[in-house]
Design a protein that fits this description.
Rossmann fold, 7-stranded mixed sheet, 8 helices, 7 strands, 35% helix, globular, GTP binding, Small_GTPase, Sigma_54_int_dom_ATP-bd_1
Length: 238
Amino acid sequence: MFWRGERDRERESKEQNGGPLSGQVRVLVVGDSGVGKTSLVHLIIKGSSITHPTQTIGCTVGVKHITYGYSGSSSSSIKGDAERDFFVELWDVSGHDRYKDCRSLFYSQINGIIFVHDLSQRRTKTSLQKWATEITANGTFSAPLGSGGPFGLPVPYIVIGNKADIAAKEGTRGSSGNLVDAARQWVEKQGLLPSSEELPLTESFPGSGGLLAAAKEARYDKEAVVKFFRSCRESHIV
């Protein structure tokens, strides 16, 4: 499989350069069919948009290499303490109903979850509650948090509203209130406003909050997503 080859090449490169490796974390990417999960995963891994994403059959796995730098480290710090590398396995789970009965096969040893919805389709955000309930009921979790979050989820998670570019265009025509709000938020994000120190988590579905993305335009909050991956890593090694 392609993702294994990519991970092996990254691993060999780091070993040749003497860099430490600190394992891997598994992150589910879930949401209704058509919300752009595959495009978003490609953007996170490759740093570029994908023109014609293929429909996900069951589940596909991509790997992102992360360099873990500890804040407050100085040049005199021991290298092993100041910087660690790890891999994030992004499990892109198909949202099509035909795979509903077998999706639980992919819900094992979870370290984190990315919930994705389409900003131009309100129902896809409402569906996130269904996804959270399904994963909680059928999943197993690696190094779960001490207390479960909303819907009993015991691992870190974030919500990403994709297709902000489409929502912004439709919102300017006044198609619905939530699209106008999405357009306003997207414009604010393009103004390079300082990102919050807190992870933009949402406490309930379909509550407010979360990140915005436009995968087809190769736009997402990279800093916040990497911070999320690091939080998954931290909970994994506690």
